[in-house]
């Protein structure tokens, strides 16, 4: 990226919470926290201050199918970025006192989610629609599983999953290939422990539960998650569904925003988003409204979806969605952090890299019949799933329609 003053380096582990056993719930997330603690050569404060001193960013995240750690820094500090990332990931101390402190931190993180209805409803929704499948488990784990973590158990878990063949190193910025290779060979090792072969856990596609669930809370707003079917992650499906999502609920010009917020004034925000995994997927619609307006709001969403399945989208809508996605993609590609993420995730899921032009060509090639067929596929369920958090009587909640 010859224009970029910054660079980004990320290490992706090809596993996330789906690879946990029932006794290890929340271990990947907890381990992510622990790798920001003291290493063999630096304290946690030194790790943070060395990056922040040069205006850089150090962060990590845990998902269901991968875990990520990354550094964004000015190009001249590329070696420092490699050094810090390598140090924290490959030389953690796992000190007893750090584990004890971090248990408390994660428990507080859980409480913050539980106290925020707009965060809680998302996890509540996944638990309900995926029922007992690993896909429905909270990534953060449970209070019991986190408090039960020991130095021995977390180190054993680390050694089981963190090895080179199970990782992708992704780099983006105004750097030469030879420079990247030199830094990688200096700070990362590539030899696997004997017998270690990468084999990410693949969970059989779960049967989704298109039922209704209410978590009663004495709060002002009524938080809503609606769920339709989805598809597993593949390059073409991602391309088509992102266009569909843009038209339906991807911004202020979308159908849902215009018809439910602008025309009816039923909510402050309403949007939809797809979720893609190796063997399954979801298509979700989220909004927050008042208890009195909830039935009307959801009724209008259903009417919109029925109209799409019945009549399809307009050619102009597809044209505008393509333009939106092409513009957003081009803007995103100017940022090393976005490009680094894109490289890593494409390698994990597709085993190859689709450059900007290939992704743009794929977007342009989507036809209206293809888009409409995808809409019929994901909205083919008899009823939408409904998970809500708010102050409503059961009798009132049961009257809310979900039938498509």
Automatic annotation (TrEMBL):
InterPro entries: Metalloenz_LuxS/M16, MPP/UQCRC_Complex, Pept_M16_N, Peptidase_M16_C
Peptidase M16 N-terminal domain location: 4-142
GO MF entries: metal ion binding
Pfam families xrefs: Peptidase_M16 (PF00675), Peptidase_M16_C (PF05193)
Domain of life: Bacteria
Domain Peptidase M16 C-terminal: 149-324
Family: Belongs to the peptidase M16 family.
Stated name of the protein: Insulinase family protein
Organism encoding this protein: Leptospira ognonensis
Source taxonomy: Bacteria, Pseudomonadati, Spirochaetota, Spirochaetia, Leptospirales
